[in-house]
Amino acid sequence: MKVVKNYLYNAFYQVFILLVPLITIPYLARVLGPTGVGINSYTNSIIQYFILFGSIGVDLYGNRQIAFVRGDKVRLTQTFYEIFIMRVITICIAYAAFIVFLMFTHEYKNYYLAQSLSIIAAAFDISWFFMGVENFAVTVFRNLLIRIVTLICIFSFVKSSADLYIYILILSVSLLLGNMSLFPSLHRYINRPNFKGLHITRHLMPSIILFVPQIATQIYLVLNKTMLGSMISVRAAGYFDQSDKIVKMVLAIVTATGTVMLPHVANAFANGEHKKIHSYLYKSFSFVTALSIPMMFGIIAVASKFVPLFFTNRFRSVIPIMMIESVVILLIAWSNVLGTQYLLPTKQTKAYTTSVILGAIVNLVINIPLILLWGAVGTAIATVISELVVTLCQLKVVREQVQFRKLFQGTGKYLSAGIMMFVVVTLFNKQLPSSWISLFLEVVIGIVVYGLMLVVFKAKIIDEAKEFFNDR
């Protein structure tokens, strides 16, 4: 029951941190236009590199290490402060590197400065600690007020394309305040540190080992926008960014299981409960498959109506990008279970790292020709192929450790139900007029059709849901 509760908290949190920009997207698309949106996307993609190198894999490593020692308050206190201080130091180095970068940059200098507050904010991000102790409620509710204030500020102060700097500043400051708001809750878990007994450097190499796959992941999460902005235009980067925001919001619901299950599986692994780990894996894989398939088909079916309504007709170029990129919802759902929920907590970091690096290499190699041929659409294709490579590599690694038949049990039924849903929604999408009411109706129809098909096919998820409610 605790896992389900934490999943709901984390799913809400992951969606919520994307909800503020999502709610403001229609407004900002009209106020800032494709160019303004593109400049924000492009400059932020550069800043993310400094945040990435400053964080050195702490989010994953810290989460896992805290899960390992959470039963011992002394070790928990020591581990937290060692990792936290290490991250503050590396973020300071990253910010110094940013200052050097700024000295050689002449375009968008003010926007980079506003974005750079996000680098400082990363030093105070201790959400990894609360995820490690499996307290997801605090990260949700502490940030709720900050995000609401952010929303109010955006609608109050961003009135034209000239306010792009103010918009970036609002987002950066809110991130900093949101991260700092988590500190008052620490006293429930840790004591005052014994600074003489801290060994900060012992976490450096293990963190860097997990940092390598994060670098690779960042290549096809951020480099796409950087390359589009440099090779085509900031407008093209903006188109891809808008599609990416919608897909990432949907993905947040699915991949929330990864953040919740990592400390849970890590704790089971530390106690030698291997049968329990495999049980978690099969159930989680079935759950994310059942959830991601309708989301993937749903976006493809309604994209042609959703984009003009949500972004305005000036963003119609986003439609094919979103339809192609939505395929990664299923691929990332699978790789999240295999990688984040299984390989990492069971200390198979090398296998996980190899899969992600191969995906990054493929992305980098094919991105250039595909961008030159089809612009942002080419980037979407490259993203899908890269995620496919990652997933296939991880499946190859676990093939001798798990039962594939049990892992994919029910997948055929989920796909069949998803295809039926897609056909029905597409037919309604063509017949109904372009309006929010029609779009809402199509979503409801899709949910009903998919649910009915699962019942008809007697899908595995139905039995698992019955077991859950019966256990309660």
TrEMBL record:
InterPro entries: Polysacc_synth (IPR002797), PolySynth_Transporter (IPR052556). It is found in: Membrane. The chain crosses the membrane at residues 7-29, 41-62, 83-105, 111-133, 140-158, 164-183, 204-223, 246-266, 287-311, 317-339, 351-374, 380-398, 410-429, 435-457. It comes from Secundilactobacillus silagei JCM 19001. The lineage of its organism: Bacteria, Bacillati, Bacillota, Bacilli, Lactobacillales. Keywords: Membrane, Transmembrane, Transmembrane helix. It holds the Pfam family Polysacc_synt. It is a multi-pass membrane protein. This is PST family polysaccharide transporter. It comes from the Bacteria. PANTHER family: LOCUS PUTATIVE PROTEIN 1-RELATED. One of its GO terms (cellular component) is membrane.
